[in-house]
Structure formats: structure tokens, C-alpha cells
Amino acid sequence: MKVLIAGCGYVGEALGHELLALGDTVICLKRDTRGLGREISPWAADLTVPSSLMGLPADVTAVVFCAGARERSEAAYTSTYVRGLENLLSALGSAGAELERLIFTSSTAVYEHEDGRWVDEDSPAEPTARTARCLLEAEAITLRGAPRASVVRLGGIYGPGRAGLVERIRSGQVTAPGATLYTNRVHQDDCAGVLAHLLHAESPPPLLLAVDDCPVDLSELYRWLADQLGVAAPRASDSAPRGRFRTSKRCRNARLKAMGYRLRMPSFREGYAALLQEAEA
């Protein structure tokens, strides 16, 4: 299939290489296409500028929208995820493209629970944060955009080149939350693997949670990393959690596994162990 990856950044470029290995043709759309591998066809455009999207190829059969907003604000989220997606679908329609598959990468941030409860694809998403509501609006646009459309709600993404937490733990710059706060993570390798698996699935589900097997309390994650690094565990904070660190839920990945996908990094232990090896190298 001919796949257009809109927003070919940390996840998108990894997906591009994954799809090339499967024999797909890949076009990566981003503002600055310098540095992309030679086998990936670059398309320089800005999703928020409709005129830059004119002339897209008509033979695109699948789109993965994994662009990232420039900042965490309602205006940026609306511009990128809602208007950007609408602009792209309109441009492809004008080009005569007939999409068979469309995937939008959303976030588990649409679940704002604070009590550590388990959630899955059937759990209601009723966020109060305006940014999360923008994601839900883009999800709805996606599900109307192609015969086989899917929304993938990704957990916290980490992987090669993202060792910031490791370095902050090493240098003692992290404070552990004073309460139990579950975090749900997914390695870059699995982000790309899940999206490729979904693109090639016979009957893709309309909604999928992409997280590893191990929701973990942030304090436990910090202690584990500190132990691996041989440094003191972060002390507990006396202040209440704020922002995105306020929520606490545990995401199930049963639907992902029922599709036959096998996680490459089943938990934070395997994923961060690889990062630590990378750092040592």
C-alpha cells in the first residue's frame, strides 16, 4: 500500500522504516524533511497551511496522522489535530485520493481519572482539559474519514534518544509524587510496530489502546531506575501533583493482544534497560 505519514517525527519516522521493511511505499509529510532516510519519499508541507498541501498524490491509499502540536494549549491542539486533520483530508479528497485506511494517534490523556482505576476502549472518555477535548474532536473526524479508520490512544512514549528522565534521576533532579500515581508507557519500537500491525490488519478496530503490559506507579519507576543507576531514590514531594502528573489510571491492552500483536518491550523494565545500555555505549 502507499502510506502517507502526516507528522513524520519521533514516531512517524520509526513507522516509516517499519513499513518500508514490509514492502510498503512511504511518503513522510512534515515541515522540514531534511534528515529523512533516502528510501522515504519526503513531502514538505505544513498541516496548518492548506495551500501547502495542494498537489498531494492521488494514489495514496492509507494515512497515519501522528503529528505533534507545537505546545500544550487549546489553540495549538485545535490548529494541529482538528484543523490540520481536516486540511489534510480535504487536500487528499481534492487530489482524488480514495483512502482505504486512516489512523489517528491520540492519547490516553483523554482519561482523566485520578483514582488508579483500570480503563480500556469501552471506558468513557470525558475529559475536562480543553486539549484532551480537541483530541476527542479529531478522533471523531478520523472515524468519518475512511472506510477502515482507527484511533490509537498511545501511552507515554519513550525510547532511543529520550533519556531525559534517566539523566534527571542520575543527577538527583527528580522528586517522587507524594501519592500513588500510575503511568502508562509505550516504547517507540512498539508505537511503530502497533501502527504497522494495525495498517495491515484485515479488520482493524475503530479504537485501540497502545500501552505496555505494566502500568506502574511513578515512585516505583523512579526507585527502579535509581537502583539500576546506583544512585539514591528520589525523595517524596510534599506538594500535590499538578498538570498531567495529576491523573492516575491503569490502561488495559487486552484488545491489542487479541489482535495478535506481541509487544517488543512488555514493560518499562525492558524498555529502560535498553535505554541504559544505550547511555552506557
Give structural notes.
Helices cover 35% and strands 19% of the residues. The mean pLDDT is 94. With 281 residues, it is α/β, with parallel strands linked by helices. Helix 1 packs across helix 5 (188-199). It has helices spanning 10-21, 74-95, 130-143, 164-170, 188-199, 218-229, 254-258, 268-280, and strands at 2-6, 25-30, 41-44, 62-65, 101-107, 117-119, 148-154, 156-158, 182-183, 185-187, 207-210, 216-217, 249-251. A 7-stranded parallel β-sheet has the order 3-2-1-4-5-7-11, with helices on both faces. Strands 6-13 form a two-stranded parallel sheet.
Please count the helical segments: 8
Number of strands: 13
The largest β sheet comes out as: 7 strands, parallel
| Helix and strand run | EHEEEHEEHEEHEEHEEHEHH
Low-confidence stretches: none
Strand content: 15-25%
Overall mean confidence score, pLDDT = 94
Based on Cα principal axes, name the global outline: globular
Name the structural class: alpha/beta
First-to-last CA distance: 37 Å
Task: State the helicity in percent bands.
Answer: 25-40%
Chain-wise SSE layout:
Layout: E1 2-6, H1 10-21, E2 25-30, E3 41-44, E4 62-65, H2 74-95, E5 101-107, E6 117-119, H3 130-143, E7 148-154, E8 156-158, H4 164-170, E9 182-183, E10 185-187, H5 188-199, E11 207-210, E12 216-217, H6 218-229, E13 249-251, H7 254-258, H8 268-280
Parallel strand pairs: 1-2, 1-4, 2-3, 4-5, 5-7, 6-13, 7-11, 8-10
Antiparallel strand pairs: 9-12
